[in-house]
Amino acid sequence: MDNAIEVRTLVVERGKRTVLDGISCDIPAGSVTGLLGPSGSGKTTLIRAIVGVQIVRSGTVTVLGRPAGSAALRRELGYVTQAPSVYADLSVRENARYFAALRGLGSAEADRAITDVGLAGARNQLVGNLSGGQRSRASLACALIGDPKLLVLDEPTVGQDPVLRADLWTRFHELAAAGTTLLVSSHVMDEAGRCDRLLLVREGRLIGDDTPDAIRARSGTDDLEEAFLRLIRQLDEVGGVSEATAGPRAHATGGTA
Amino acid sequence: MSLHITLATAGRILRQLRHDRRTVALLLVVPALLLALLYFMYDGSGATFDRIALIMLGIFPFVIMFLVTSIAMLRERTSGTLERLLTTPLGKLDLLFGYGLAFGLAAALQGAVATGAAYWLLGLQTTGNAGLVVLIAVVNAVLGVALGLFCSAFARTEFQAVQFLPVVVVPQILLCGLFVPREQMVGWLEGISNALPLTYAVEALAQVGISADATATMWRDLVIVAGATVIALVLAAATLRRRTPLGVRIGQAQRAASRQPGHPYVHPGGRPGELRREGVRQGVDPRHRR
Fold first, then answer.
1. What is the ipTM for the molecules in this complex?
2. Beta strand A32-36 with A181-186: parallel, antiparallel or unpaired?
3. Among the partner residues A83, A142, A187, nearest to B275 by beta-carbon distance
4. Per the CB < 8 Å rule, is B260 touching A248?
5. Is the pTM value of this prediction over 0.90?
6. How far apart are the C-alpha atoms of B28 and B114, rounded to whole Å?
7. Domains and CATH numbers, chain A
8. A12 - beta bridge partners?
9. N or C: which end of chain B has fewer CB within 10 A?
10. Which residues of B touch A38 (CB under 8 A)?
């Protein structure tokens, strides 16, 4: 199996608004793929469709050869939501043990995952008493338990100090080298360079799907953020996206003040 | 559904409860204190105290477990843990039965304390056995849990969840025969009363009050309450959807709080979630930089 995830013309609507507008992409197995785009671009919705909790209008999402959300996939998937979805009134260890138990695993696997995210020293603390960064690592630990084949992480590095972020990215690449597929969303562009592949999402459409090097080459700059901006500008000029100029004017004024 | 996962879930819920010592203390002590209040209110008229205290032993666990469960389940929904749980091998019924089991056990402990206090300290006298009172209290508590699980689906905030108490619980207390004997109600009111499960729990308790052995009416009433519990659990399962139109939205304030102060990626002036990097082009929309 070459692709861990295959998305075909995925459309998600919420009321009258189209949140994802015909997205198609492949995510190769054993890779770290970055899902990048501004807030509100549809990253979380795409992630929810992949883990099988999103109601979709049309299109297909195939995960590890099965339709997204299949019962058989629930053992193969580790999912970290954007808000740290762990129990604040349990200790780190109690959380990890519960998520281990759901996969039929014991405390050894739970403790290993806690050590992996660097929380061994805080394992008996209540999650509610941890800092924001520690809390999201506790949430990550619960997803790592049982070596899932696919890890879907929605902004896992928010609030982490730079050293820990580097450690986490090293860990992600170790997992990928061992065969795990990782899909990591971020809105911080300097994390993009750490990914094997990038998916750039804007306003519900995929505007880039390539390796970081290829995206740099295509846009003629080494700076990935600048590359993203050039891609957007090219699209706006070609497609003449007229409504795009209306909204954020006030914001631009605020930025110069 | 898996027994292992159901038990793990019940264990997790009890562990959450155990960390909240104040809630545990309130759960165990408050019903007994309220019974003591009744005792002093009806000072000297033992028969009235016996009748009302007996019924209260069934109503307290119902009300308290309804409230505790609806808040607990609402938290699962709003914190994102429910969405996450539904991507794991956990089945919907594992979660619902886990709640029923955990709070049923808590109710058994609560019922034992309250019933013990009523009989030994406050001199409650019933013709029937105190063990039956605890049994009915526990079944009632699980009914409260099941209704709480169901109602939490219709609340988006704690404020809304609490409002279901007057909607779902209070009418059952008013119409259960405690204030006005059911035979004296107007026909349509008695009809509504017949349709409410708490009515049968109260009747079952009254049977324990007047007869030495467990009566057929008491068992029939208990089966009705248990049946209502199952129906509420099935309805609650129907409200638990794996696929939903919208996930848990992390608020901007929450998001900002998750970034530690002084962190290099904190931008006091920038919009959370904006595509950006420290110090570079912050706050300037790319479309205005042509």
1. 0.84
2. parallel
3. A187
4. no
5. no
6. 8
7. 1-76+148-239 (3.40.50.300), 82-147 (no CATH)
8. A20
9. C
10. 273-275
